[in-house]
Amino acid sequence: MNSALFFVTSSILLLLQLSLAEARDVSTDTEPAAQSQDQQQLKQQLDQLQHDYDQRLSRIEERLKETQKATRTQKANTFNPGISLILNGTFSSYENDPDNYQLPGFALSNEAGLGAEGFTLDESEVTLGAKVDQLFYGQATFALADDAGETSIETEEAYFQTLGLGGGLTVKAGRFYSAMGYLNEKHRHAWDFIDAPLVYRGLFGDQLKEDGIQLSLILPTDHYFLIGAEVGNGVHFPSAGNHSGVGDWLVFANTGGDVGFSHSWQLGISHWQADDVENRLSQGLKTPSYSGDSRIDALDIVYKWAPDGNSEQRNLKLQAEFFNRSENGLMTLEDTAQSSSYDGSQNGWYVEAVYQFIPQWKTGVRYDYTDSSNSGSSIVLDDSGLLANGYTPQRVSVMLAWLPSEFSRIRAQFNRDESTAETDNQFFVQYTMAMGAHGAHAY
Fold first, then answer.
1. What is the 3-state composition of the chain as percent helix, strand, coil, each rounded to the nearest 5?
2. CA distance 407 to 388
3. Dihedral pair phi/psi, residue 50, rounded to 5°
4. DSSP 442
5. Nearest-CA neighbor of 201 among 293, 300, 323?
6. For 100-197, where are the alpha helices, taking DSSP H only?
7. How far apart are alpha carbons 25 and 39 in whole angstroms?
8. Which residue of 86, 181, 380, 401 sits 20 to 30 Å from the alpha carbon of 331, by its own alpha carbon?
């Protein structure tokens, strides 16, 4: 401000002097050389003043840019994250006792199975996310659940992710849902059905988490093509144990594109592997424990339709996934010290269709199927839940959802569950309320 005022004042004075000199030059012809010299000196002084002002202004602009950059970085790093809260509650009704639930051919994790009957407060999520600076974004999601009258808090995700590395490369590190398959990366409230597919329940205990690092790369191709890899410490089911190095790893690839304005699709493949599973505990009266290796292959495909790309009125989504797991190792009953060599082969798939027929209303249908072929001691396998005796669990689900807005949903669901020989008819009503900032979900 002072430099500008100085320049303006000085310029006015010099211009007045120059004008007076020119006026004297017009009114008299005496001493023309002296008058011309005075004018030249005044012009030189004005040019010098302009030059000095330009330099000062340039320095001020540079300082302003540095100040703005520092201010942006400081604001980005200020603890002012976007905060969201997801509330879930469910009414559940079963014909069979949910405490006796089994999925023949699969050793379920201790967290898998059916929820309590009646009115229950489901997991509620609190998410905090913010841009750390120009290079990183951070997010943490905590799940609050009611466990026998006591509130438990679990860290579902806590990771940072790079921004703008260039070349289509993104790095994520911390705890996050693995990119295995299609549904796994999505939080439960983003699922189209209330519960997980049977194959997810059997293989992952509903979802596969990773404590590690993920690299993904979008290739410079004409249509969408993404490849990626993960390495983790292998502490989460279906792996287990303490590993000083890599406990499990995953490679995956997704491709997709649009067909006209109304159709889009995505195809994905993935392979997960843990070569040193140590004492993986599962449900069972005699505390089954598995040690060995585990490999899972997956294929997923998604198709979406929306007339002219407008999904507000009507839209359709078809979704299917197939999984196959092979394991070789030792199965032990911890309570009796009985053990057996174990060679497991399990697979499962599901297909679902969800149709929004008018704004705010959706309906859907899903079919699940699982199969297994496990070998080992029949006594050990039976007590571990791995003896299917040729039985193939399957289930049919229908769903109806009302979504007054993008922040609220009430849905009802019916399952005819034939996971065991005794069919279980299951009925659910669930509310989901989203409050605060909540980012868009992936495709």
1. 20, 50, 30
2. 42
3. -65, -40
4. P
5. 323
6. none
7. 10
8. 181
* Residue in this structure with the two tokens 């330009």, named with its chain if needed: 54
| Predicted pLDDT of residue 64 | 76
pLDDT tens-digit readout, 313-335: 999 999 999 999 999 999 999 88
Cβ(132)–Cβ(162) below 8 Å = no
**CA-wise closest residue to 270 among 295, 230, 299, 294:** 299
Q: How far is CA 284 from the centre of its chain?
A: 33
Which ranges of the chain have pLDDT less than 70?
Answer: 1-36, 38-39, 42, 53, 65-79, 148, 439-440
- The pLDDT score that the predictor gives to residue 443 is 79
pTM of the model: 0.81
Which pLDDT belongs to residue 356? 96
Burial class for 9, CB neighbours closer than 10 Å (0-12, 13-18, 19+) = exposed
In one-letter notation, the amino acid at residue 370 is T
Show the CA angle centred on residue 275, arms to residues 270 and 279, nearest 5°: 115
Question: How many residues appear in the chain?
Answer: 443
Indicate the pairing of strand 169-177 with strand 209-218: antiparallel
Q: Check if the beta carbon of residue 90 is closer than 8 Å to that of residue 120.
A: yes
pLDDT on residue 26: 46
- Whether the ω angle into residue 288 lies within 30 degrees of 0, i.e. cis, is no
Among the listed residues 107, 153, 112, the one whose alpha carbon sits nearest the alpha carbon of residue 282: 107
Cα radius of gyration (the chain) = 34
Phi, psi for 99 (deg, rounded to 5): -70, -20
Q: Could you check whether the bond before residue 238 is cis, i.e. omega within 30 degrees of 0?
A: yes
Which of 366, 362, 268 lies closest to 311, judged by CA?
A: 362
Place of tokens 């039976």: 382
Helices (H), 104-263: 198-204
Degrees to nearest 5, angle at CA 195 with 189 and 196: 100
Instruction: Show the tokens assigned to 45.
Output: 């002084």
